[in-house]
Amino acid sequence: MKTEVQESVEKGTMLPLMEEFYTIQGEGYHKGTAAYFIRVGGCDVGCHWCDVKESWNPNIHPPTDIVSIAENASKYAKTIVITGGEPLTWDMGPLTSLLKEKGMDTHIETSGAYKLSGTWDWVCLSPKKMKLPTPEVYAAANELKVIIYNNDDFRFAEEQAAKVSNDCKLYLQPEWSKRDKVIPKIVDYVMQHPKWVVSLQTHKYLNIP
Q1: Has 209 been labeled as part of a binding site?
Q2: What is the CATH number of the domain that holds 57?
Q3: Of the four, 57, 146, 148, 183, which is 20 to 30 A from 176 by CA?
Q4: Is residue 131 a known part of a binding site?
């Protein structure tokens, strides 16, 4: 029999909270802007180069009432970024409803591997080959951010770009551990294919969370 906590997590009224923090958005379209990050545990996409593998197992992160999550977030910033892990593992509807009631702008960073839930002002889609996005996430994406680890990722990037809307912003971002090798390739590629923009993890260069 499911516990009350398990049922609350399934309903999205509690979420396995890994961490929450106020910082500067380091990547993509909104880089350089202040934002409050909510990192939710749970991900089965399995990127071997993931830099937050401790987020994968939701059972090690405490189920937390979304009312307290929303209250904490509203103290710091107007822009709230929900990330993971893979946040769409869970129902994001209840949390984003609370955040919108408080006048917050809601952003999500997702692989798109699960059905889109929640109300979003900005959807950053970072697709992965191991588990491709669902059709509704492609349609909703405001920003496509493809991580470049090897040469085949450029092919994958073009394949993914063909599935998002014409208004979607297109970014190529070097995988951090391979940045010295792939940045020159990304620069050359963007110069030859200017619909793309280079995204860097500027928060790592700034030495902030």
Answers
A1: yes
A2: 3.20.20.70
A3: 57
A4: no
